[in-house]
Backbone:
């Protein structure tokens, strides 16, 4: 009796198990029929994956001449309007920090009297709150195109405008020697920074840390290009200026918030005076 019961239980288990296997096989078959084709079978997907995994370079192990690389396709040059909208509009659209507004024709006409070349040079070197190149990476030609657009000139008119500027009266060139005398303390202090070329590390520190205050004159900091303010400080001598920076003064923390040595601070001061 017990053997018959065990045999019946085993048969029932086998029937149930077989039914489950058959049911699973049917579900998988229906899924294959109904479901869309797998993404990895798509030709475009395969091409995209192939591009992603292709090598970024090749190692040559022979002395044979390498095949010339394909020339990179140069990006289409941007128009003056696109260049202006990318960087310059942030200040010139609203007149931030005294920047002449783009639609102030009278103000641009006054600036245009000095000539396009002078304006381009001013933008490249920076002035007041405007950092060098206006904070952009534009080339000189790109900056020139923006300046010409703001002045309302095309390339032909700009060339014509430069002729009168080049023929300015000699009296302007023979400026009073008093002006040179006023700049003498600044030039002497800058020369005291050393005749050696200023290290890139010092320049980078000035352009990133010191410029945060000295571009716009924050908390009374002398602005880059403000000869009168730098002349007043240079009159005290380079040693005094270095000592002031090392100890800190007013809103300026010790060493200007940098890790520069005293020699590097002297070079940084000379670099700021030359701006």
Residues:
């Amino acid at each position: 009796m017990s053997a018959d019961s065990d045999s019946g239980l085993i048969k029932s288990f086998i029937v149930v198990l077989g039914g489950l296997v058959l049911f699973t096989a049917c579900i998988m078959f229906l899924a294959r029929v109904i479901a869309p084709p797998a993404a990895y079978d798509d030709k475009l997907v395969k091409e995209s994956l192939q591009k992603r995994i292709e090598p970024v370079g090749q190692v040559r192990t022979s002395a044979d001449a390498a095949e010339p690389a394909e020339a990179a396709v140069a990006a289409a040059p941007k128009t003056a309007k696109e260049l202006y909208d990318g960087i310059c509009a942030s200040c010139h659209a609203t007149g931030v920090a005294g920047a002449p507004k783009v639609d102030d024709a009278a103000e641009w006409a006054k600036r245009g009297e000095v000539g396009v070349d002078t304006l381009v040079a001013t933008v490249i070197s920076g002035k007041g709150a405007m950092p060098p190149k206006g904070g952009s990476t534009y080339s000189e030609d790109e900056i020139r195109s923006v300046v010409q657009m703001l002045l309302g000139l095309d390339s032909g008119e700009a060339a014509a405008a430069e002729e009168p500027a080049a023929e300015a009266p000699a009296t302007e060139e023979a400026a009073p020697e008093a002006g040179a005398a006023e700049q003498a303390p600044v030039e002497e202090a800058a020369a005291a920074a050393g005749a050696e070329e200023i290290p890139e590390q010092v320049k980078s520190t000035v352009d990133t840390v010191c410029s945060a205050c000295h571009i716009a004159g924050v908390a009374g900091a002398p602005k880059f290009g403000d000869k009168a303010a730098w002349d007043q400080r240079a009159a005290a001598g380079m040693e005094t200026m270095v000592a002031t920076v090392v100890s800190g003064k007013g809103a300026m923390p010790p060493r200007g918030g940098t890790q520069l040595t005293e020699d590097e601070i002297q070079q940084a001061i000379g670099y700021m005076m030359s701006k």
Q: What stands out?
A: The two ends are 109 Å apart (CA to CA). The chain has a mean pLDDT of 76.
